[in-house]
């Protein structure tokens, strides 16, 4: 299912050590390294975000944030969206939101297939699902959704 990023910036606020700028290679262009994988890449500030990037207030106030993160009105955005590394492209903080029909949300499944829920019935159902569904299956997300829907949950 399609994941829609709310552009809250939460996932990038403590990635300053993960994404290192090695040098400025040209105006608004930086040689960088994704430290966890040792992957080098060139980051270019998106043309429409250069004014945002110039504002040093946010990185000074948030020294552990990714150096390319900046506030933009009500959002907090990546200023190298077009050239961000693979790990950032693949990241989705929430892949499933679970509720009871007619009720509010009672659980979320995060991008690494962790269930976040205090609901004991849902937690039990999740354990049942993990007994029969391999998380390495290419359609694991869809299988989990179908499983929970058969148990009566609403999954979006
Ligand atoms: S991936 Fe999730 S945590 Fe990160 S900015 Fe988007 S909504 Fe926020
Ligand atoms: S490069 Fe962009 S998406 Fe990746 S951590 Fe930095 S701000 Fe977030």
Structural account:
With 156 residues, the protein is α+β, with helices and mostly antiparallel strands. It folds into two domains: 10-89, no CATH class; 94-155, no CATH class. Helices cover 25% and strands 28% of the residues. The chain contains five helices and nine strands, in the order E-E-E-H-H-E-E-H-E-E-E-H-H-E. The chain has a four-stranded antiparallel beta sheet, covered by helices on one side. Strands 1-2-3 form a three-stranded antiparallel beta sheet, with no helix packed on it. Strand 1 and strand 2 form a beta hairpin. The longest helix is centred in the C-terminal third of the chain and has 13 residues, at 120-132. The termini are close together. The mean pLDDT is 92. The protein binds iron/sulfur cluster (2 copies). Residues 5-11, 91, 93 line the site of one iron/sulfur cluster. The site of one iron/sulfur cluster has 9 residues, from loops.
Write the layout of secondary structure elements.
Blueprint: E1 19-26, E2 29-34, E3 39-44, H1 50-54, H2 57-61, E4 69-72, E5 75-78, H3 86-90, E6 94-99, E7 105-110, E8 115-116, H4 120-132, H5 140-150, E9 154-155
Antiparallel strand pairs: 1-2, 2-3, 4-5, 6-7, 6-9, 7-8
The structure holds iron/sulfur cluster (2 copies).
């Amino acid at each position: 299912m399609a994941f829609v990023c709310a552009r809250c910036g939460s996932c990038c606020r403590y990635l300053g050590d993960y994404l290192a700028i090695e040098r400025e290679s040209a105006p608004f262009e930086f040689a960088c390294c994704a430290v966890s994988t040792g992957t080098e890449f060139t980051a270019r500030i998106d043309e429409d975000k250069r004014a945002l990037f110039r504002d040093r207030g946010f990185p000074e106030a948030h020294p552990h944030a990714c150096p390319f993160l900046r506030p933009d009105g009500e959002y907090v955005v990546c200023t190298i969206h077009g050239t961000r590394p693979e790990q950032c492209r693949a990241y989705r903080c929430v892949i499933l939101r679970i509720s009871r029909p007619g009720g509010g949300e009672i659980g979320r499944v995060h991008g690494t297939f962790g269930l976040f829920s205090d609901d004991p019935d849902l937690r039990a159902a999740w354990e049942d699902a993990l007994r029969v569904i391999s998380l390495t299956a290419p359609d694991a997300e869809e299988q989990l959704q179908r499983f929970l829907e058969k148990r009566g949950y609403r999954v979006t």
